[in-house]
């Protein structure tokens, strides 16, 4: 860190003049080739916008000021900055007259700025913070007037070329469209990241011409002006040229996304996370994983998601802002804003919505949707259910096709299911309602009155069998023939009887309650 931090007698600090730092991010361009109503710098890339990545790369500079030049989509960019970098100041460049013009406008808006001015193109998102810090350290230690971050690239097409003299010193930076054939052959390019001495930059910015193919004020022209004034300028070469890649269209954006994916995935694998198919695993830069987490193929981990040690996520899982505890399993599912406790199990084919909170060892199985609900430790909702606005006690078992009827068309209401309660299949729990601890609900019930602890709640019409109905009403059908054979006793083995056990559809207590509908009976279908 070159900035000198000087404690004052009153305990506050001032950053000493020579190395006071200001960051200027250029983000006013339209990004025509993106063909988008979204300003280019707001396009997302694995957890941050392009400009969000650039600001993150500048973070360790501990700049006294951060100025972001906005223009195209200025209001959208301003709103985004307010959310992600409230300390940054947006400076409006009403007309995009070039990168030099953009920096000039920024410095005019901040006349007090001295020391080092670090300029970053808003569309170079793969830049590492370490690289920016190295550039600035080299610039400041050499007392240069200007230092540019350069890279050797396989294909320099479209980029500014670093032109050196016979002794290897920087002479000028030439844009592709203004370059001679000899200059076009240069593969050392300008990354669009620079450190400047504020006073000397201000001085030459006022003298920029628009005498080039685009009729713009080029920031890059500052270099040849400083060179001809005899000022010391430097070139800092990036070790990894992929850090300097810009983003001008959606094909380049996709390429950057793949590069960043590989970088993020490599980091997690080296940190002890198993990625079974890194090519199809997309992890936002904002996600955290613990050692021995396993991520299977076709999985996206987004936003503030966290995956605990030994948890297995995937294949075919998307987690957005979802916290997964150690040892949990999530298979072929989608979760947003949910919490999955230690050793809990989710899926295949579950949908966890915001504030679904699953305690340890609980289970949300197949075709189950959970929203704004807590499942206690070891509670199970194994199949085909909707759980909304509910609190489900520890070890409760919710049978297949149970619906928590939370919405009356105007308001949402809560349902409480007590500890170790047992809710039979195909039940509607019509909120607000409570099923007490250890209570049972018979399969096929619609429960709108509370069920006391230990009671059986049942709302079911008694069953009536109309003997011989098929033979009379559906003669000459396969059913009639089968019935006749069965009645003659010629059918094969009898159908197996089912037995309810954990993890299977619960057939409830039909035998014991048939024909005895409860007092609070409600229509079920
Ligand atoms: C620029 C450099 C080029 C370098 C390349 C690296 C110049 C003249 N050229 O070219 O040498 O190789 O970056 O990616 O600087 N912007 C504004 N206001 C403007 C114009 C641009 O804010 O009036 C912003 C853009 O939003 C963008 C950045 O500046 O974030 C760079 O502008 P862009 O038009 O993309 O420059 P390049 O042609 O890529
Ligand atoms: Ca560019």
Can you walk through the features of this model?
This protein has 525 residues and is of the alpha/beta class. It contains eleven helices and 41 strands. Strands 14, 15, 17, 18, 20, 21, 23, 24, 26, 27, 29 and 31 form a twelve-stranded parallel β-sheet that branches. A hairpin with a 5-residue loop joins strand 1 and strand 2. The protein is elongated and about 110 Å long. The model is unreliable at 1-17 and 496-525 (pLDDT under 50). Uridine-diphosphate-N-acetylglucosamine is lined by residues 26-29, 69, 93, 96-99, 101-102, 121-124, 159-160, 173, 175, 189-192, 218-220, 246.
- Oligomer, anyone? single chain
Name the hetero compounds present.
uridine-diphosphate-N-acetylglucosamine, calcium ion
Sketch the major β-sheet. Answer: 12 strands, parallel
Q: Kindly provide the radius of gyration, computed on alpha-carbon positions and rounded to a whole number of angstroms.
A: 33 Å
| Uncertain segments | 1-17, 496-525
Which shape, going by the Cα principal axes?
elongated
Number of strands: 41
Mean pLDDT across all amino acids: 92
- What separation lies between the terminal Cα atoms? 71 Å
| Sheet/helix structural class | alpha/beta
Q: How many helices does DSSP assign?
A: 11
Task: State the share of residues found in helices, binned by percent.
Answer: 10-25%
Strand content: 25-35%
Blueprint of the fold:
Blueprint: E1 5-7, E2 13-15, E3 21-27, E4 44-45, E5 48-49, H1 50-58, E6 65-70, H2 74-84, E7 89-92, H3 99-109, E8 116-121, H4 129-142, E9 146-152, E10 161-164, E11 170-174, H5 181-184, E12 188-197, H6 198-205, H7 221-228, E13 233-237, H8 250-270, E14 274-275, E15 281-283, E16 288-289, E17 294-295, E18 299-302, E19 306-307, E20 312-313, E21 317-320, E22 323-324, E23 329-330, E24 334-336, E25 339-340, E26 345-346, E27 350-352, E28 356-358, E29 363-371, E30 373-375, E31 380-388, E32 390-392, E33 397-398, E34 403-405, E35 415-417, E36 422-423, E37 428-430, E38 433-435, E39 440-441, E40 446-447, E41 456-457, H9 469-473, H10 478-487, H11 510-513
Parallel strand pairs: 3-6, 3-8, 6-7, 9-13, 14-17, 15-18, 16-19, 17-20, 18-21, 19-22, 20-23, 21-24, 22-25, 23-26, 24-27, 25-28, 26-29, 27-29, 28-30, 29-31, 30-32, 32-35, 33-36, 34-37, 35-38, 36-39, 37-40, 39-41
Antiparallel strand pairs: 1-2, 4-5, 8-12, 9-12, 10-11
